[in-house]
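Batch job 17 of 40 flagged for manual review because the log was empty.
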Amino acid sequence: MSSKILVTGGLGFIGSHTVVALQEKGFEVVIIDNLSNSSLDVLAGITKITQKTPAFENIELRDKSQVKEFFEKYPEIDSVIHFAASKAVGESVENPLLYYENNLTTLTYLLQELQQKKQANFIFSSSCTVYGQADQLPITEDAPVKKAESPYGNTKQIGEEIIADTAKINKNFKAISLRYFNPIGAHPSAEIGELPIGTPQNLVPFITQTAIGKRKELSVFGDDYPTEDGTCIRDYIHVMDLAQAHVIAMERLREQKEKSNYEVFNLGTGKGSSVLEVINSFERSTGQKLPYKIVDRREGDITAAYADTEKANKELGWKTKRHLDEALKSAWEWQKKVVKEEEEAAQ
């Protein structure tokens, strides 16, 4: 089996950290990214960290002919980690067809190519959003998949179903869906990190941009939830721990240790943190005071979600190693570097 792994969306936040983890483990990586929500600068960051430049193809995965041409150029590739997707919940509500095209046709075209291989391995970047507000906490992989709150969430559910159906009829195709909780943080070198284009959709980039002065204050959406401090609870996982899980999952597929040819794993820390706890952790770990105000609840927000990690711990032999303070400190170091580079470029 070829040591080459295709990583789609490999210049994005989770993708870039996974590329680093794969290269450090000795895999050869080929990245596909159309740069719609990323930057070529990330490639330089990956190279600086690993001293290896992954092959890069600027390809539009929505174009079936381009996908076909890619696999003709790299016939040896039979293992794929698929990150490339649109992921803003609000935008998906406003523009559902863009999300269905971007997140589902791309997946279908990749699977059509992999079906032609003698053996193929596929890891899908899924999300805990498939559970909605779970009936029980912590959330196990057996928790029912609820009706999606947004077209984005729906594409993750449908994506998983497409993969499961493909695995059902093709025993030479093996796949794992990894359901992430809330990835945060950055590489300790501060060479790569989360770089949202436009207004951040996630809590931590909003925190770091507020702390550095890019935004006036942080809005905390509601303090009247049935939690200890009234704010929403989420499971925040360091992106470096998340990246490591992808490497382990890929090795599981390649070494044929999987129990069936389609498996699902939750990736989280197993611990929930409220919005106010995250703010306190940020202030404690960075020494930065954070201006924030409580505003009305945001539509679609659930009260609490955190993972039961037992299956991933036991089956994958994977555990998170990094805590919340460390993740937030690394996100802050990355934010400072981004602003410094922007200031230097403007001079």
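Reviewer: the log was empty due to a logging misconfiguration, but the result itself is present. The radius of gyration is 20 Å. Unflagging and moving on to job 18.
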